[in-house]
Amino acid sequence: ERREEPSIYEATTATLFEIVQQLPNRHQSAILVGHNPSFEELANGLIAGGDNAALSRFGGSMQTGALAVIDFPVDRWNKIVGGSGTLAHFITPAFAEAEK
């Protein structure tokens, strides 16, 4: 299922967090695409730990074109709280190119 959310473009971090918490529970995963600084702030607010290599590449910064895969130990989107996510993967265009 694809859903466009026009408010993401200029959303604050709080708005992005609300969007995540309001995702339908029938979905076990979601992809959000947007812009900084809000996406970087959201990632920093959600990530508590994770894969060491991914954390090193992330370094607290969502570079242009980056993909962060964040896992949460919850069964409902509205149970996600700040600092509860685990960074499973962090891929930048440069990293993806180097892995070819």
Question: How would you describe this protein?
Answer:
With 100 residues, the chain is α+β, with helices and mostly antiparallel strands. The protein has a single domain (6-98), classed as Rossmann fold (3-Layer(aba) Sandwich). The protein has four helices and three strands. The chain has a three-stranded mixed beta sheet. Helix 1 (13-21) packs across helix 2. The chain is globular and about 35 Å long.
Helix and strand arrangement:
Layout: H1 13-21, H2 38-46, E1 47-50, H3 52-58, E2 67-71, E3 85-91, H4 93-98
Parallel strand pairs: 1-3
Antiparallel strand pairs: 2-3
**Percent range for β-strand residues:** 15-25%
Order of helices and strands: HHEHEEH
The main β sheet shows up as:
3 strands, mixed
Question: What is the fold-level CATH name, i.e. the topology?
Answer: Rossmann fold
Q: Based on CA inertia axes, which overall geometry fits?
A: globular
What value does the average pLDDT take? 95
Q: How far apart are the first and last residues' alpha carbons, in Å?
A: 30 Å
Strand count: 3
CATH architecture: 3-Layer(aba) Sandwich
Largest sheet strand order: 1-3-2
Low-confidence stretches: none
Helix count? Answer: 4
Alpha-carbon Rg, integer: 13 Å
How many domains, as an integer? 1
**By CATH's scheme, which homologous superfamily applies?**
Phosphoglycerate mutase-like
**Top-tier CATH class:** Alpha Beta
The computed structural class is alpha+beta
